[in-house]
C-alpha cells in the first residue's frame, strides 16, 4: 500500500456567537455588591470559543456540546452542568470565585443536518441530548463527547463518521481577575477535497472503513471549470471524516520512545471504486498533525490524482524515442512544426506538453508554432508520472525569430572589373532603389561570388574562383564590417566550393567537390575542418539544415545526418538519388531533383518526409534548371502561403527566360508561370529566386542579358496568383560595374536581441 503523508492543522481563528444567559449578575454571597471579588461569590463566567477555522465558522446548523465539571474539596472533578447549543456567541455559566472548573466540549459542523435526531428532538451520538436554552445544572454527564462515535441521519453509528468535528478539554480556576474560560477548539477531522472530471467521477464511490460510503452524483456537479484548452464539467465535493481517537487527535501528539512525543497519526484505508465496480484506487492514506487535506482531483489531462500520486495506467505511459527539436532562425509569422516520437501501448498524445518560454502552448506529438518576433525557447515535457522511467523527459531549443525589411543581393560580379568595388547590394522593401551595402575587394570576395548565407548575425560568402580572390569570407550582417576570409578551402581550386549552411550559432557546414567540412563559426572568425564528413568523401553540393537534420547532396545521392551531435564521423542516412536540392515546401517536405546532371534534364523530384525520412519520387513535365559552371546554386524557392514550388527551367545557360510553378497538391506544372515579358524583359539569372515568407512574395532577380546588358539589373515580386506586386530596376554602371550579375538573395534578419 502506498502512503500519502497528510497532517492535521490546528488553526486558531476566533469565532463568537450568542446564547441566552443562565442568570443575570451575582446571585448573592460575598460582599453582596455584585462585583465578584470575594472568594465564594457566585458570578457569571464567559466561555470564549476559539480555534474554529473559517470553513466551520461560516456554516449554519453547527452544534456545540459542553460538559462542565466542578472540583470538590479533594480536587476531584464532578459533573456540574451541561448543554447543547446551536448559538454559542455569548455563552455563559454560573461559577464561584475560587473554585476550579473543567470544560469538555465538542463541536460538529452542520450537525443539525448530519447527526440523527429522534422525534423529541434528542440528537444521537456524540450528543445524546436535545438543544438546550442555556446550561442545565445537574449531575447528568454527557459521556460521548470524547468518543468518535456519531449517529448519522440514517441511524447508523460510525466510529469514523463523515463529519467536521472539533474537540477540547481544559481546566480553569475562577479568580477575582479571571472570569472566563477559553475553549480552544482543536480540529479532530481531516478533509477530503474532490474535484474530478464528470467523465471520471460520475457514480464513483469513496470507501473508508467504519465510515459511510460516499458516492458522487449529479448533485455534486459544477457548471464547469476551466482547464487547458477546454471546459470540463466537474464533480466537486468536500467531505470531513472524524479521527477515531478524539483525545489523541486533539492533543496532536502521542507518547513515543522514552519521554518523546510523536505527532499523532492515523492510517486510513481508502478505496475509490468506479461506477462499474472496478477499483480506481486502493491505498493507505496517513494523516497526522500539520495538514488536514487529502485532494482527489483530475489533472488537466483527465487523470485521477490522489494526494500527490497520479493514477496513470502503465499501458499509457510513454517511452521517448526521438524528436526534431534543434536550433533555428525563423522569420516571424510562419508556422514551424516541432515533433516528438514516442512509444506507448495505449498512447495519449496529451501527455506531451509544449511550452514557449515556459508557458504551456499545446499538447500532443506535434506543436505547430506560429513564430513570434524575438528570442524564444521552445520546449516539450513528458511529466514524470507519464514517463515509463518515472522521470521527466524534457528538452528545449532556441528559436530566434526575426523580422525582415528587405534582402541582401550578392553579385558575382564582372570577372574583369576593378578589384576595389566588389560587394553586396541591398534592397529595403517599400523603396524603389537598390543600394550598396558592402564594398570590398579581392581580399574579401572571390572573382565570381556565387553563394551567400545570413546566419547567426553573420553573412558568409563563397567565391568560385579563389585563385583570383578568396574562397570563403564573412561580414557582420548588421554593420557590413569585414570579419575574416580564407583564399582557399582546404586547397580547392576553381568552382569547387559549393554551399554553406549554419547548424547552430557555433557550427556550420561547407560543401565542396572533395566533401563537406565542419566549420567552427566563432562569430564569423571561422575555422574550417580538414576531415570530410563521413559519406561525402566523393564530393558534396547543396545543403539544407531543418527539422533537426542536415541534408546534403553527395555523389548523386541525397543523404541526411542528425543535427544534434553532428561531427565528421556522424552516420549518413541514404535517401535516394538526387543531383541538386534543396527546398522545403509549406507541407514540411524536403525536395531534391534527380536526372541527367550534365544535360540538366532533371525532371524527377525526390520528396523527403522529415518526420521519418521516408521518400517518394514524382515525375514532372519540366526541368529543374541548374548550371554547373562556376557552381550556381539551383534557382528553387517554396511558397509559405501555398503548397507550391517555383524554379527556373532546364538548359545549360544560367540565363532563364521564365519561371516554372509546381503545385504540389494537384501536381500541376505551369511552365511559364512568369515569362520574360512579365519581368519587363529581364531574365532570371543564377540563383534568381527568393520567396519572402512573411510578405508572401516570390522575388526574382534578373539582368537584361550578357555583356554590357548585365549592368542592367531588376527585382520583380509576384504573389502566388502571379500578380506583379512591385518591381525595382537599377543600373550598375561606371564605378559600380563590378556589381553586375546578381547571384543570390538572402533575407535581412532583424533580431530583437543578440543571437543566442
Structure write-up:
The protein contains 4 helices and 59 strands. The N terminus is likely disordered. With 756 residues, it is mainly β. The strands form 15 sheets. The chain has a 6-stranded mixed sheet with strand order 15-16-12-21-22-23. Strands 1-20-19-13-14 form a 5-stranded mixed sheet, with no helix packed on it.
* Widest sheet: strand ordering: 15-16-12-21-22-23
Tell me the major beta sheet.
Answer: 6 strands, mixed
Helical residue percent?
A: under 10%
- Through-space gap between termini: 49 Å
Poorly predicted runs of 5 or more residues: 1-36
Based on Cα principal axes, name the global outline. elongated
Structural class of the secondary structure composition? mainly beta
Fold blueprint:
Layout: E1 3-8, E2 42-50, H1 54-57, E3 63-71, E4 77-85, E5 92-96, E6 100-108, H2 111-114, E7 150-151, E8 157-158, E9 165-173, E10 180-184, E11 186-187, E12 189-197, H3 198-201, E13 205-207, E14 214-215, E15 221-227, E16 230-242, H4 246-251, E17 253-255, E18 261-263, E19 265-273, E20 279-289, E21 293-298, E22 304-306, E23 309-310, E24 319-323, E25 328-331, E26 335-343, E27 353-356, E28 359-363, E29 366-370, E30 374-382, E31 393-402, E32 406-411, E33 422-428, E34 435-440, E35 449-455, E36 458-463, E37 472-476, E38 482-486, E39 497-502, E40 507-512, E41 515-520, E42 527-528, E43 540-546, E44 549-554, E45 557-562, E46 573-577, E47 580-584, E48 590-596, E49 601-609, E50 614-619, E51 636-638, E52 644-647, E53 658-663, E54 669-675, E55 683-692, E56 697-703, E57 712-718, E58 724-731, E59 742-747
Parallel strand pairs: 1-20, 2-10, 12-21, 25-31
Antiparallel strand pairs: 2-5, 3-4, 3-6, 6-9, 7-8, 9-11, 12-16, 13-14, 13-19, 15-16, 17-18, 19-20, 21-22, 22-23, 24-26, 26-29, 27-28, 27-30, 30-31, 32-33, 32-59, 33-34, 35-36, 36-37, 37-38, 39-40, 40-41, 41-42, 43-44, 44-45, 45-46, 47-48, 48-49, 49-50, 51-52, 52-53, 53-54, 55-56, 56-57, 57-58
